[in-house]
């Protein structure tokens, strides 16, 4: 009897979704029902455990504010963001790989001129970042837009420490020049822990996981007629490249922030010589 009921209830809920006007919504809700029911059949949670799970999700929602997105963080630490990102992207050969958006892109990056310094505090090791935005056949994409954001040298985003960092610190919206080139100054990013003072932190502690991400700079690159890419560049040699708390490292996204001794190039970037220089191209797939 019990066995029959647990089988039938799944069919009954899936049947109840038949009237869903949007076929994709119906597909998603039906699959969600089947997988959730299978999860319950497999693990047999007690009522107390289920209440605890609901309490956890409630606390996750209650932790979200205009500058904090605990649900994105939860999706990130469970590897779901990376799965969605990777399965959803249809990447032309040679196009830049995507990775997670993360929860700190909630504010608009200030428009900045090429060459500007996005490190408004000036506390970190200066570095120059440069490259080109190209189509997958190698054609430069003049006017491509790059949205850039990163944590400061101590591993915090502007929205996490508004008392210390001015709004827009570590952020910039750049437009590539007539040859698709971009360049800007910043500080070398550091590895940092994702926020652990909420429910996701409790989950990491309960599972004995560390909260660290390897040093990186975020980019969203977009250009007319091309699919945008949301990605990072990771600092070669950074700790945690092989154990990112959100599983977002892809080999192709690791870049050398090379020690560079070149007075004339330093002059072009307006940076003291010698300096650290990350150079890489962002390659977009035509739509
Ligand atoms: C980030 O890199 O900003 C980030 C990504 C996922 C979770 C937390 C932070
Ligand atoms: Fe980040």
Automatic annotation (TrEMBL):
Q: Which family does it belong to?
A: Belongs to the intradiol ring-cleavage dioxygenase family.
Cross-referenced PANTHER family, in alphabetical order? DIOXYGENASE, PUTATIVE (AFU_ORTHOLOGUE AFUA_2G02910)-RELATED, INTRADIOL RING-CLEAVAGE DIOXYGENASES DOMAIN-CONTAINING PROTEIN-RELATED
Q: List the cofactors.
A: Fe(3+)
Question: Which is one GO molecular function term here?
Answer: catechol 1,2-dioxygenase activity
Instruction: Please give the Gene3D superfamilies that the UniProt record associates with this protein.
Output: Aromatic compound dioxygenase (2.60.130.10)
Instruction: Look up the record and give one Gene Ontology term from the biological process aspect.
Output: catechol-containing compound metabolic process
Keywords of this protein's UniProt record, alphabetized?
Dioxygenase, Iron, Metal-binding, Oxidoreductase
Q: Kindly give the InterPro entries that the UniProt entry links to this protein.
A: 1_2-HQD/HQD, Catechol_dOase_N, Intradiol_dOase_C, Intradiol_dOase_core, Intradiol_RC_Dioxygenase
What Pfam families does the annotation carry? Dioxygenase_C, Dioxygenase_N
Boundaries of every Intradiol ring-cleavage dioxygenases domain copy:
129-157
Q: By what name is this protein known?
A: Intradiol ring-cleavage dioxygenase
